[in-house]
Amino acid sequence: xxxxxQDERAVLAALMFDQFxxxxxxxQQFAGVDEQTARRFGPAVLSLGQGYYFTRGDVxxxxxxxxxxIGAIVGADPxxxxxLGPLGQLAYALRSRKLLRDIPRPLLAQLMRNSRPVMDVHSxxxxxxxxxxxYYIAQFGIDKAHRGSGAARELLDGVIAHAAAQGYPAVVLExxxxxxxxxxxxxxxxxxxxxxxxxxxxxxLIKYLPxx
Length: 212
Hints:
Elements: E1 2-3, H1 9-20, H2 24-29, H3 35-56, E2 58-63, E3 69-76, H4 86-94, H5 97-100, H6 105-121, E4 135-142, H7 151-165, E5 170-175, H8 181-186, E6 190-197, E7 200-208
Parallel strand pairs: 4-5
Antiparallel strand pairs: 1-2, 2-3, 3-4, 5-7, 6-7
Helix pairs in contact: 1-3, 3-4
């Protein structure tokens, strides 16, 4: 595992979009958008969000044999992130006019409307009941062709070690995909909350780190 470089943002955004396009969050965000348009502009939209974490958090990757990223994990200290959650990321993106110029404004407006149900189910502070200052994992994805290769373990073990070295007492994350929960349980996370709002359910997990 290593830190991602700024010049890899386009590659990482394309990787993440390909992994998550068929998942709940992006299916909602791109509802009503034809697949060709979604695949054309989707990576650029995700790149905006990743830019937020390049400035306020950590973006790590693991490499394939040729040195190309085959997986990525994105995290941060929640105290450095906007209390508005995804809206805060969007506000950051809107200030990045250079990155927005290639995305049609009507499409951006539609994506904002579509994102509201996901924002409604998401909480920016659920973990405070269990740990006030954890390390937060915001995104995690492995290229489909490299699943089962050990890349997931490399990234999760790596970011957990990073958080522990920084003195965080715990690592937290959420997922809208129930199928992801067993993997996180395997890595020592505990499912603390299951919250439903509208058509979506958010699974909220925490892994406590040893105190030295």
